[in-house]
Structures are given as C-alpha cells and as structure tokens.
C-alpha cells in the first residue's frame, strides 16, 4: 500500500514538471495556431478533430505537442500510439467484434488505469466516460473499426471532451462524420533545411563547408520531416568527403527505416490500387489527371476512383490547376518507394535482369535493355529522362521485339535541348502493338516502322522529330486523343485522320515543310485545339473545318494564308497574326464565345468596326508608317500591340486603356512615348533595337513597367545593388520571417563580338534568373520569370520584377543565359520594392 502511494505521488510530480521535450521544433508554432482554432477548447461541446497527411509528415509529433500542452486541462487523458500497428501485432481475434472488444479493453485499461478489467460488451466505454471531460489522442488510425471500438460517438464522452485522430486516410475521417480536419502541409524550403540541420549538425544551420550539401539532401528528401530526421541522423558526424560519397546512393535508394514506414501504407492497398500507385511512381508523376486517365483506361476498372482513393490515403496529391485540369503529384520519397518495389519485385529476377521488370526508369538499365535486346513481355512502361544519359544511346533495331506488352514509351527530352542522344543506326524493326503512349523527342527516323499499329494509341508526342511522314494508308485511330509533332521541320504531310474521331489536340507548330492538311480534318468532331503556328509553307486550310468543338486555332506566322478560315462561331481563341488575312467576316461580332482575336495590321480593318471591338492583339509591320492610325487607338479591347520594322515611326501616342503589352522591334526612328499605362498588374514594354529613344522615353519604360527591355550601356543608378558579371549578393536590412518579398532586377546584355548575324537570326536568347538564400540555400524562380529574347544588335537592358518567398536576410541573385551564343551578361542589379 505504502509503495503504491509513493508511486502515485511520484507520477503526479512527474506530470506537473513542465515539459521541454518539444521546445524549438521548427514550424510547430504555426501548427499549434491552426490546431487551437479547430480544438476550440473554450466550447463545452464534445468535438472530434482529424489530423490528416502522408506518412512521415509529422502528424504524430503535432498530436504529441497538443497532448503535452493541454492534457492537464482534462480529467482523464490518453495518447494511444500507432494503433494500426497495434492491430496487426496483437493476437488474431476470431471476428471483428472480438477485435473491437480487445481494442476497447486496452483503451479503458489505460485511460482509467485499471489493468486487468473485464469487458463483455462495447457499451462499457460510454458507461465509464460519459460524465468525464477527456482528451483522447488516437494515433495512426487506418480502419473504421478502430474508431468504432474507441470513439464511435461523441455522446460517449463528457462535456468539453476532445478526441484527436491522426490518419493518412481522409475518407475514413469523413465516413465517421468528422468535419474538423487539419491537413498537414509540407514545411517550406527553409524550414525543411533547418530541420535537417538540427539532426545533422545539432543546430539549425550547417557547419562551414556543408551549406550546399545540406541543401542538396533537403531537396532530395522533398521536405518530408521523417526523411529529414532519419537522414540527418545518418549524416551526423560524417566528414565532407563521406557526404559526397553517400549522395549518389541517396538519389536512387531509400533508407530502410524510411522505406518500412512508407511501405506500410502501400501494403494496405488492394492489388489494383498497388498497381496504379506503381504506374504513377514510375511513369506519370506530375502529369495531368485527365491524360493519365486516358492512358490507363484499358488497364483499370475505374481509374479516377483509384486516383481519389490514393489521394485520400495521402499517397498522392491531386492539385487543382483550373476548371479543366488537375495534376497528379507524388512525393519524391514515395516515388523512390514505388521504383524500389518494382526493382525488387519477386518472381522476375529484376535486380539483375532489368529487362524482366514491369517498368524501366533508370538510364543505365534502359541502355542495357535497348542495346542488348533483353526486354521481355513483363515490360509495361519505359520512362527515360534523356538528360540523364551520359553518352549517346544506340538503340538496336530489335530493341522492342520481345516487349509485346509495352504500353507506355516515354523518351522525354527538354524542349530546348538541341543535342541528339538517341540513335537508331540500323533503323527500327517494329514498335509494340499495344502502345497507348509514345513520347519520343527528336525521333531520328523519317517514318515510323511500316508495321506500326495505332489501334490502342491515345497520344503521340514527337516534337523536334526528323519525321517526313508518319505512316501510309488508313490506320485505326479510334483511341487517339492527342498528337503533337511540334518543330518537326521535315514533316511534309499528315496521314489520313478520318478514323481519329476522338482526337482533341492536334499541334503542328513549327512544321515549316508542311504544305497542306488532309481533308479528313473535317471529320474530327471532337477537336478542341489546332495549332499551326509557324507552318510557313501552308497556303490554305481545308474548306470543311467548321467544327463546333474547336476552341482554339493558331495560324500565327502562316505567312501564305490569305483567306479567313471557315470555322465554327464557337471558337474562343483565334490567332491570325503575321498571316496575309485582311478581311474579317461581319458575323464575327456575334461570336459570343470569342475572347481572343489576334490580327496583323491592314488598312482594311478600319472599315470593319465589328472587328475593332473584338481584337485583343494587333501586329503591325509597315516600313512606311509614320504614325499610329487613329482607328488603332479605338480598338477597345486591345491588350497587346506589336510593332516591327516601322522604320519611319517617331512617336507612339496614347492607346487603348486595356493595353498591357507593347512589343516594339527594329523601329529605328522611334524617339517619343506619349502614353501612360492604366493599373494593370503586369506591364510589358519591350523595345528591341530602338536606339533613338529619348531620355524621357527610357525613364518611362523603366519606371512604368513590370518587365522591360531597351537599348542601354549601363545598369541605372537607382538599383541599390549593382555588380559586374551575372550574380550579385543582396543583404537585407532586417531578416524576414518567411515572407513574400518583391524585387526589381536587371541584366545588361552585351552582344558577342564574334556573333554571326545570319546564324543567329532565327534563334533566341533565354535569360533565367535564380535566387539563393544564405549564399547557396535556394529558392528557384518560377518558369514565368524566364525570358526569351530575339536577336539584339547592340547592348540592351532587361528589367523585370520578381516575387519570392524569402526566409533569410542574405540573398544571392544569379542570372544564366541559355542561348544561341549571341550575348553575354556584362552587369546586373537588384532593387527591393
């Protein structure tokens, strides 16, 4: 008796000792703030709250901190840890009811501190706790019977009780009627970096010389707290040399302890959902959901339902992009898990023989299989990132002969990569008959194999190919939805498409050898998009493309097309810039769906008031024009005006209030800008090779724009930070605490002396800005801040505004050029706005 009293007193003293276990946890304050708003501890109602997110994101840690902070405010409290594992490790019960009895018995034994209690029915929990204010944390719930056994209804507990459930399965929470759900998001880049450093270095910053390595590991782990903790502990105490040696393995292999936790969720899936998970991990991560649905329609009973199930279990994220598109996103570590599972799948000897695997992803494995002809019928998909090839790949002419079940072939190369790495020195005997997707950038043959079967094909994507034609004769194309042959400069003709009755997207941009389109296009009753931009030899469109489904038609740079296309009045986007079209049908004013009309300047347009109310983009190329005509100023919805080669134009007057982009090129007499912008969020003023601009015009361009380019020989003095070269360090006065900051940046582009003007004429300079925190710790600037510029004749200044999430007071701005070898960056500057 005395011993028991002493133990109880000791336990009480321990409970009243303030906890320091969770002090300093990165990002925890923000989680607590969100959770407190859901808990509503001042309310007397009984409330159930879900904490939802993927494995390893910190759900249990958040629940522990809550329990530590608030448990003393309740009469009784319990933290039941990892219930799903408890269910799998306890002795097997004869039925579901017995399992519930056992679980409730363990729950009550802990919460009321009665170890050997007897339990014969499930009403005991309500009988014992309905007058008690309790705090219950149920960790890692993965089955509804677990909730039914412990907390089936709120009326089981006394007023003011709170029941917190952590789970990966959102559907489980909703099925139990739990509407207060906290979705745990991934930490920011800087928070993840700090987390990793705490485990790797014992502090929230790295040791000297480890900055870049620590950032690399943080990125590889995809900001997952579990991975940051495990790998931080793994690297702790290692030398820099050991870090460098360990990194390559981390890129392709999961740590065993991380894998065991993540695989628990995978193992709980049914076989079909496991297979869907592997398809996403190996082939379709970061793809649009509607496209992947089409690819997998014949492989799964209900693909969309499968996606939602995986999302509810936090194995993928379905990111809403627009009313039409949702993107499938899978975390880096889950991608690695899926690929490891495929690599070690039993029954296929796949570790040593990659040609027997379901999916091929690793560049070295793919090289081996395609050169040695070792692929067999097990192979369902191949996904090669061409940039990962260290050397040229010579594919055997018989490479695909044994892959009778290959459905997805993806040779993915960057669109702007001009290097050929994939070769077919002996040609290609065949492509598998069951292919649903073929993506082969820079395809090296002039025609597809003569026995190529298109029966199951959903998408053909072969940009920058050497194709002259696809196939001969009439092929079954009933499943085909998308065809993209952009920049296939040798393509002379399209095949008969009369059977492609489900085709939605036909993209032929930059096919400069294409002379005509097949009349069968008129039968494509589901066609949504037709892009013929830059098809400079195309003289006319078929007369029967009055397709009600067509939303988008782009004829930009189709220089020989003279006649306004005979299209449906349902069209939404119509791009006719740099064509020979001069007439617009009077009926266009009644085209209620039309939101964008892009035209080239013609004097005839002023006689067409119905067009002036609709045009959104106007392009003018007139060497004799001395002033902008009055009727141009009256185009009420004009958003973009392009002026090229207007050599006698001296002044640009006030234009439509709707204007937000003015692109002026090679207007050698232009001096004055007598207009102002309205309050548009983004204002583009591009003046390339306009060397006579006066000082007032230059100042206006720089101060009124969000993005601009103009002739200049130096970085303006108003940029607080200036430097020679292509990078600059910025020290902010006050360290921001994870906030979004705006900057104005500029680069001075200098033409290379040895630049061949003719060689560079058709090529563009791409300027890519980047921001790094703490010297090397970085935030990549989004794609929308990358600029493509045509040929410059002299030095030019490019200025632009950048918005970035910043958590450090020390930023390194760097600017890279990916181009035609025509310009270099001489100076750069940054100004905080």
Automatic annotation (TrEMBL):
Keyword Transport recorded: no
Keyword hit for Repeat: yes
Domain Disease resistance protein Roq1-like winged-helix per the UniProt entry, residue ranges: 271-344
UniProt domain NB-ARC: residue ranges: 43-203
Gene3D superfamilies: Helical domain of apoptotic protease-activating factors, P-loop containing nucleotide triphosphate hydrolases, Ribonuclease Inhibitor
EC number: 3.2.2.6
Catalytic activity as recorded in UniProt: NAD(+) + H2O = ADP-D-ribose + nicotinamide + H(+)
SUPFAM superfamilies linked to this entry: L domain-like, P-loop containing nucleoside triphosphate hydrolases, Winged helix' DNA-binding domain
Keywords in alphabetical order: Hydrolase, Leucine-rich repeat, NAD, Repeat
Domain of life assignment: Eukaryota
Biological processes, Gene Ontology terms: defense response
Segments forming domain C-JID: 710-787
One Pfam family this sequence matches: WHD_ROQ1
GO MF terms, alphabetically ordered: ADP binding; NAD+ nucleosidase activity, cyclic ADP-ribose generating
PANTHER family linked: ADP-RIBOSYL CYCLASE_CYCLIC ADP-RIBOSE HYDROLASE-RELATED, LEUCINE-RICH REPEAT-CONTAINING PROTEIN
Record's protein name: ADP-ribosyl cyclase/cyclic ADP-ribose hydrolase
Protein's organism: Arabidopsis thaliana
Upper lineage: Eukaryota, Viridiplantae, Streptophyta, Embryophyta, Tracheophyta
